[in-house]
Every structure is written in structure tokens, then in C-alpha cells.
Amino acid sequence: MTRRLLSLVLAALAGGACERPSERDPGDRGMAGRIMLGVIVYPTSHVLTYATGEQAAEVVLTTPASLDEVVRWYRAALPLNAWDLKTQARERDGTITLYAEQHSRPLWVRLRANTGGPGTTYSLIGADVKGDTIR
């Protein structure tokens, strides 16, 4: 089921998720798809938005599942999908951030409970570190 959901996310990215095609460089969709390749999404999630930079991409998703349920799922699913869960933190506003790596590829999963209703909204943030010039 995870591969199917990932395919849906990548299809949404390729289709220009939430912005008009005239507002976004066609290369952005390809970059986002490349950076997010192999990233897992929680079942029943729907893409809200996505954004790309020169070496990073972010996909924002929502699901009707509770914050605790989604966090538990990511804590179990990341290691099962070859992601090494490095850190976990809870911010004062209740946002939970998980940081994982897969073969030196970074992934941040930032999760927060929806305000005014059930469910969870979360961001998947990935980066292309091959061309990293920071020393």
C-alpha cells in the first residue's frame, strides 16, 4: 500500500498539485519527484501543497488519522523502509519533528494536529545533498 500512496504523491507532484502551471517552472515538478522518490506517506493522506528549491522539496499532506497514530506509524515505518530514524522532537506548539536518513539522504517529517477538527497535517521535507557545497 505504501508504494501505491507514494505513486499518488508523485503523480500529484507531476500534475502541478496546487499551483497553476504558468506559475511554476516545469523543472520543479521533476525535481520534487526526484527528491521525494522513495519517501513514504501515511495511508489515507492527501496532498495539500508542494514546493521546491534548488536542492530541496517539501510536500504538505493531511490525513483524518490522529497525530499520535501518524507519529507511531512513521516511527515504525521509516526503519522498515531503510530510513534510519536519527532524532525526534516535540515543539512547544505540539508539532513533532522526526529526522531520518537513507544513505545520507535527509528527510524531515513535521507533524501537527489539525486545529478546529480531527486529523493531522504534516510535511515531508527532503534534500538533494549530492551537490552540497557546505563545508
Q: Can you give keywords for this protein?
A:
34% strand; 135 residues; disordered N terminus; 6-stranded antiparallel beta sheet; globular; alpha+beta; 6 strands
Can you walk me through this structure?
The protein is of the alpha+beta class and 135 residues long. It has one domain (2-127). It is built from three helices and six strands; from the N terminus they run H-H-E-E-H-E-E-E-E. The protein has helices at residues 2-14, 26-35, 67-80, and strands at residues 46-52, 56-63, 84-90, 96-102, 105-113, 120-127. Strands 1-2-6-5-4-3 form a six-stranded antiparallel beta sheet, covered by helices on one side. Strand 5 (105-113) and strand 6 (120-127) form a beta hairpin. The chain is globular.
Structure summarized in a few sentences:
This protein is α+β, with helices and mostly antiparallel strands and 135 residues long. Helix content is 27%, strand content 34%.
Question: How do the helices and strands line up, and which of them pair or pack?
Answer:
Blueprint: H1 2-14, H2 26-35, E1 46-52, E2 56-63, H3 67-80, E3 84-90, E4 96-102, E5 105-113, E6 120-127
Antiparallel strand pairs: 1-2, 2-6, 3-4, 4-5, 5-6
Largest sheet, spatial ordering of strands: 1-2-6-5-4-3
Helix content: 25-40%
* Low-pLDDT ranges: 1-23
Count of individual helical segments: 3
Give the ordered list of helices and strands.
Answer: HHEEHEEEE
Specify the biggest β-sheet: 6 strands, antiparallel
Number of domains: 1
